């Protein structure tokens, strides 16, 4: 096959041509990038966020530490002559720019002089950045083919459904079921959950295994398009029904968080898929099923939808909205002091200063204009990669998956206006994985075989 030939579905997996082809060359243990990314997802969703490795900060969550190991694996692959990734990958350059912006801001913070608490928070943020970028890069360069890519996304959907079930149980029984997920050997940093009162009639917000209800609802909104994807395109009828059930569970759990951001995020994701990826028949079916789910919530959780409705109708009277707008004067003052590189990553500590419920403004204050440009470049590059994969894809299934990746980036850009999204590790590392998948679909749909086949080798062959 010539270097400029069209995408071949079996570039990397001869066994897909026919059963048992090259079976003697296949390994029983498949410890590859897809397997370890799947482990990261399970650890991220199924272990409560406050559980960390003893004597560490929240960067010591098991999933995050594994992501740091993945960064080391990717770095070794880039340096080793036998493992060198020869194909192009735009995400490598934009993540380098993002990392450089963080480090320049870090130096700017040191130059201005930092109290111990802020200096420690800078170190924590830099460590978190390496963990974040490790997951982005290893997913972009390490997922070897469509089959393994879809395997990771199936684990993502199943793990999100598990988290959704826990949130539903919390809401229905007002009982924190996550206490049964405390693993011996891990340290509990803070409370497992906080049922925050919201609205009238004793309504309260739930967070499942995340640290906040907003994070819980937005993570489920991020995953929802992928649940729909497998409900449409799973290989068997039974599998499609199974993922259809998981889709209902995930969608039904979003209102349990009683979060405007979560409802808006779900609406944005579904609107993008509605316009970009679905035919009219599926659109009608989706609307019918959405009405059915709404009716089920009305019957099963009386008053819940009324609470959500009042949150939107009376948003101008909500003190949280006023608090967000009052932050603008403080942001203007901080920005005027250090416009280019900011105060230093992570130095706007809520206990010392304020909670800034806007990731874009938070990045502007702590990373300056350079940090905002780097963050925007990361989102826009992933968006372009997913769109390129969408245009190149020959099958409806692949186009639908790329549309889901497009919805992820647009959703992340918009919800960053409503809360400090990258401060919540379940959300930010879900975004990291899906951003890396954008790079993977760009690579797997590239016309040059050298790009399609450039990937990180397995740990065990």
Automatic annotation (TrEMBL):
Residues 246-375 form the O-antigen ligase-related domain. Pfam families: Wzy_C. The chain crosses the membrane at residues 33-53, 59-79, 91-112, 124-143, 155-175, 216-235, 242-258, 264-280, 287-304, 360-387, 399-419, 425-444. It is found in: Membrane. Its main location: membrane. It is a multi-pass membrane protein. InterPro entries: O-antigen_ligase-rel_domated (IPR007016), WaaL-like (IPR051533). Keywords: Membrane, Transmembrane, Transmembrane helix. This is O-antigen ligase-related domain-containing protein. It comes from Actinoplanes couchii.
């Amino acid at each position: 096959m010539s270097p400029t030939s069209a995408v071949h579905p079996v570039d990397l997996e001869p066994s897909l041509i026919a059963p048992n082809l090259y079976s003697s060359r296949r390994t029983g243990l498949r410890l590859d990038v897809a397997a370890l990314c799947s482990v990261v997802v399970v650890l991220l969703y199924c272990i409560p966020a406050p559980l960390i490795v003893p004597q560490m900060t929240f960067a010591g969550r098991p999933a995050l530490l594994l992501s740091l190991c993945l960064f080391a694996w990717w770095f070794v692959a880039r340096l080793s002559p036998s493992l060198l990734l020869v194909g192009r990958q735009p995400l490598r350059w934009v993540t380098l720019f993002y990392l450089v912006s963080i480090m320049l801001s870090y130096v700017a913070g040191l130059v201005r002089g930092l109290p111990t608490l802020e200096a420690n928070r800078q170190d924590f943020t830099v460590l978190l950045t390496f963990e974040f970028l490790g997951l982005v890069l290893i997913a972009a360069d390490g997922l070897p083919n469509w089959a393994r890519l879809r395997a990771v996304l199936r684990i993502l959907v199943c793990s999100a459904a598990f988290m959704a079930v826990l949130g539903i149980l919390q809401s229905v029984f007002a009982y924190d079921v996550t206490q049964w997920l405390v693993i011996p050997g891990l340290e509990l940093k803070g409370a497992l959950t906080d049922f925050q009162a919201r609205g009238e009639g004793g309504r309260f917000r739930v967070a499942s295994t995340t640290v906040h209800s907003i994070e819980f609802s937005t993570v489920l909104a991020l995953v929802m398009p992928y649940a729909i994807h497998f409900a449409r395109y799973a290989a068997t009828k039974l599998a499609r029904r199974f993922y259809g059930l998981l889709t209902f569970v995930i969608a039904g759990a979003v209102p349990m968080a009683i979060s405007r951001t979560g409802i808006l995020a779900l609406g944005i994701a579904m609107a993008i898929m509605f316009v970009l990826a679905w035919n009219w028949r599926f659109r009608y079916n989706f609307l019918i099923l959405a009405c059915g789910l709404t009716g089920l919530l009305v019957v099963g959780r009386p008053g819940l939808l009324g609470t959500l409705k009042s949150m939107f109708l009376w948003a101008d009277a909500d003190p949280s909205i006023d608090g967000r707008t009052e932050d603008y004067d403080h942001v203007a003052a901080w920005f005027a002091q250090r416009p280019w590189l900011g105060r230093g990553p992570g130095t706007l500590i809520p206990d010392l200063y304020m909670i800034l419920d806007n990731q874009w403004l938070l990045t502007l204050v702590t990373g300056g204009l350079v940090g905002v440009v780097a963050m925007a470049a990361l989102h826009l590059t992933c968006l372009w990669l997913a769109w390129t994969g969408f245009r190149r894809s020959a099958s409806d299934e692949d186009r639908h998956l790329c549309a889901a990746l497009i919805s992820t980036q647009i959703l992340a850009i918009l919800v960053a206006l409503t809360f400090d999204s990258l401060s919540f590790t379940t959300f930010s590392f879900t975004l990291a994985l899906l951003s890396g998948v954008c790079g993977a679909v760009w690579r797997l749909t590239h016309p040059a075989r050298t790009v399609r086949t450039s990937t990180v080798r397995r740990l065990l062959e």
